[in-house]
Amino acid sequence: MYKRQYQGSGGYYAGQNPEISGDGNFIVYETVTYDDIPWPPGPVNHYDLKRYDRQADTSEFFSNSVQPFFGSSPNPTVSLNGRFTAFGDGLIFELDFHTEEVVVVSTNLNGESANGVSVARAISADGRIIMMESVATNLVADDTNGVQDVYLRDRGSP
Q1: Largest CA distance in the chain
Q2: Which among 61, 58, 54 has a CA at the least distance from the CA of 15?
Q3: How far is Cα 86 from Cα 90, in angstroms, rounded to an integer?
Q4: By CB neighbour count within 10 A (0-12 exposed, 13-18 middle, 19+ buried), where does 147 fall?
Q5: CA dihedral 70, 71, 72, 75 (to 10 degrees)
Q6: Does the bond joining 40 to the residue before it have cis omega, within 30 degrees of 0?
Q7: Do residues 114 and 91 lie in contact, with contact meaning Cβ atoms separated by under 8 Å?
Q8: Do residues 123 and 156 make contact, with C-beta atoms less than 8 angstroms apart?
Q9: What is the chain's pLDDT, residue by residue, as a tens digit (158 residues)?
Q10: Cβ atoms < 10 Å from Cβ of 42
């Protein structure tokens, strides 16, 4: 059984939305940090990604490299071997754990970010294809149906 509980200075961390890689070795999850600090008033929530390697019994923390999602729940999904994760609740990002490269994947073919909320739902075994839902109207031409759509984003060879 794996359990991690963290206590930091002035706050604590809650783990949520875990995903396990297809090979069973990596657990990727988001943490929420609650800090009692004077400004801004009340608790401040910071969402971060963590990856636990069951074989090595080590954890990796990915907040500095993925700052764009602060304030938004990551909702991660992880590739078969645990190398890639797609995450985001708003904009969708993909993180390569080997290189720590983060790219926005909720964009149209011109590279423009989605103009509506997108949520990552799945990632292919090799991290190349990300499935997401979005209410954005600019991801494909002539999206005028006014409802949420499902998209597959092919990032090419990882």
Answers
A1: 51
A2: 61
A3: 12
A4: exposed
A5: 70
A6: yes
A7: yes
A8: no
A9: 455 555 454 455 667 788 999 999 999 988 766 555 444 444 545 677 888 999 999 888 776 444 444 445 678 899 999 999 998 877 888 889 888 888 888 999 899 999 998 888 899 999 999 999 999 999 999 888 889 999 999 988 54
A10: 11
Beta 58-62 vs 77-78: how paired, if at all? unpaired
What are the angstrom distances between the C-alpha of 69 and each of 74, 135, 147? 7, 18, 24
Residue 86 corresponds to which tokens in the numbers above?
């797609």
Inter-residue contact 151 to 129 (CB < 8 Å): no
pTM score, two decimals?
0.78
